[in-house]
Design brief:
Distance between the termini: 38 Å
Order of helices and strands: HHHHHHHHHH
Shape: globular
Radius of gyration: 16 Å
Structural class: mainly alpha
Number of strands: 0
Strand content: under 5%
Low-confidence stretches: 4-12
Helix content: 55-70%
Oligomer: single chain
Mean pLDDT: 93
Number of helices: 10
Length: 191
């Protein structure tokens, strides 16, 4: 599944399939008890798993560091996991990608959204892949398992904002960008 012979500069850890398996277990535990906003209150871990599936199955991504970061992408932002903890467990390479895609919760929601638009264009190629797959997964969820209480306007606003974020990613992975565009065209279905 994974391929990577890159080593981290701090821990000298090679990111392997075993590292990915450890990341899945860590993310599952970190998100334990958390749910998505859909009416079924789906387990939150389904979201990072969907992001990994998009990267692997639709994007053909096999780089273990990218896939580890994808499964861990919300741990800093949503679970209290620190960058240092990720460095210790998974190496600096993975931890840095996760940090790149994490919002800083010290800022209010609108500032975080604006920063995501501004920063994504300057992210590493791996972080851009994770961000792109994350937006695809979120838009699919809004279409297929909408958050309870979200109006059609709020759903459309998310799609519009996601499009502005992805504008900074263009040129990273044409196939995933095409998938994003295809899902985004379904915006008209939102009620």
């Amino acid at each position: 599944m994974c391929s990577s012979d890159l080593e981290t500069d701090m821990t000298r850890r090679t990111v392997t399939v075993g590292t990915f398996a450890q990341a899945v277990a860590f993310a599952t535990e970190a998100h334990r008890g958390m749910t998505r906003k859909d009416k079924e209150a789906s387990p939150y871990i389904n979201h990072p798993l969907a992001v990994v599936a998009i990267l692997v199955e639709e994007g053909g991504i096999a780089d273990c560091a990218t896939l580890c970061a994808a499964i861990l992408h919300d741990t800093i932002e949503d679970t209290g996991t620190t960058h240092g903890e990720l460095v210790e467990r998974f190496g600096r390479e993975v931890a840095d990608i996760v940090r790149e895609v994490s919002d800083d919760k010290r800022f209010d929601k609108q500032v975080r959204k604006d920063l995501q638009i501004a920063h994504t264009a300057y992210a590493s190629p791996r972080a851009k892949l994770v961000k792109l797959a994350d937006k695809i997964a979120n838009m699919r969820d809004i279409l297929d398992r909408p958050p309870v209480g979200w109006s059609g306007d709020r759903k459309r606003e998310y799609f519009d904002w996601a499009s502005r974020v992805v504008l900074g990613i263009r040129g990273t992975h044409p196939n995933l960008e095409s998938i994003f565009d295809s899902v985004h065209r379904r915006r008209a279905e939102l009620t």
